């Protein structure tokens, strides 16, 4: 068979797929086909139906109507085990792993090889795990527990788990959200190898530059329906974004000039042994200050310690010019300093609780008096906050786990705004969120600083830091390696500081806090 014929051969197809949840029609008449040996990008805002469609393909959900075909033969996928047997694997956006198990146990979780004596063949598990790790140039021991690895390391192991399952269709949902640029390049190289072997990739990402770099075909979903499917070479970025959000976004970063006031937060000589050292920075009222750096630079660890989530060994914090002692998040909240954490799942949402309960969680004291929780006042305040944040939810009683990632993030922003903060630390505020929801969150951040508040924004996405910030601090190996003012922002300069390629003698104005 010729290459061109292989490229036009349909490997997997869904036809007329529909799915409803209480109060929500998630998918409506979805027709979607993936060609053999291609990367098919699936684009759409959070809540467009991408994850629901993938969960149906994996057997996590059952469709109300419609059919799945593999090699043009109808199949029933009732659960993920059956999907795996049919040659379908998925790398989920929310990492699924067992921290207390070893690397080798996680790699073979659910598919441990059995010897002829009916026992787990641990010798094969060890040798295969070692081989997979060596092939991908990953420096871990098969016996090492996952809890000792970084999020980036675990993401790479999840990718290995999927591609070593002899899958013919691999779903990759935001696979690069937590890995370094070097690892992104390794992943793209692996995707190229898989394509050459005839494997089909369904690729979901909100990083549009990635989509246009590796996709052969692009399907756009909006409001649970297919808007279009085209060859990637026939599309451009503006067209895809317009189809995703149903409107044209003229200015992706709605930065406004805001009057800058006095220093709201000052951190001096903050140190946590072996994690970060001698960190000093400040942010003023009306100012958005960014923190850039490579994975492992210590940005998140610093912010967690400033907020009181983790301890620190030495250093001072001043809020509105007064030194404060912060030993826990409750201390920070009492001083009107709040933090949106990096991981919605681990440190943010309470998935089994309603959106209203998640929003009011940090400000319950406002609604408790005379020994009672005044629910009507609580719900009224939450409703007003949701209106400001443009949270889309069927009701206040809907479980937060049923909302899209973007709406979950806006619920968490509502939680902190109900605390009436003066300083907000936002750690990766747009991770895993589509361009439309990102735009809304950028507007919310702008409104926050216009209200004479201060924002510290940690992000791995340089374009959003450059687009939104007044100053950017860069961290490298646990230390601040530079601070750049808005008129000197360039990706090249920031990356040089992040990689430790700028020494103090050559930094000049980039080191000065302006």
TrEMBL record:
Localization: Cell inner membrane; Cell membrane
GO MF terms, alphabetically ordered: ATP binding; ATP hydrolysis activity
InterPro entries for the chain: AAA+_ATPase, ABC_carbohydrate_import_ATPase, ABC_transporter-like_ATP-bd, ABC_transporter-like_CS, P-loop_NTPase
Short name of any one Pfam family annotated for the protein: ABC_tran
Gene Ontology CC: one annotated term: plasma membrane
SUPFAM superfamilies (UniProt xref): P-loop containing nucleoside triphosphate hydrolases (SSF52540)
Membrane topology recorded in Swiss-Prot or TrEMBL: Peripheral membrane protein
Residue intervals of the ABC transporter domain: 12-248, 247-502
Biological processes per GO annotation: monosaccharide transmembrane transport
SMART domains associated with the record: AAA (SM00382)
Segments traversing the membrane: none
Gene3D superfamilies, A to Z: P-loop containing nucleotide triphosphate hydrolases
Keywords for this protein: ATP-binding, Cell membrane, Membrane, Nucleotide-binding, Repeat, Sugar transport, Translocase, Transport
Protein name: Monosaccharide ABC transporter ATP-binding protein (CUT2 family)
The species this protein was found in: Faecalicatena orotica
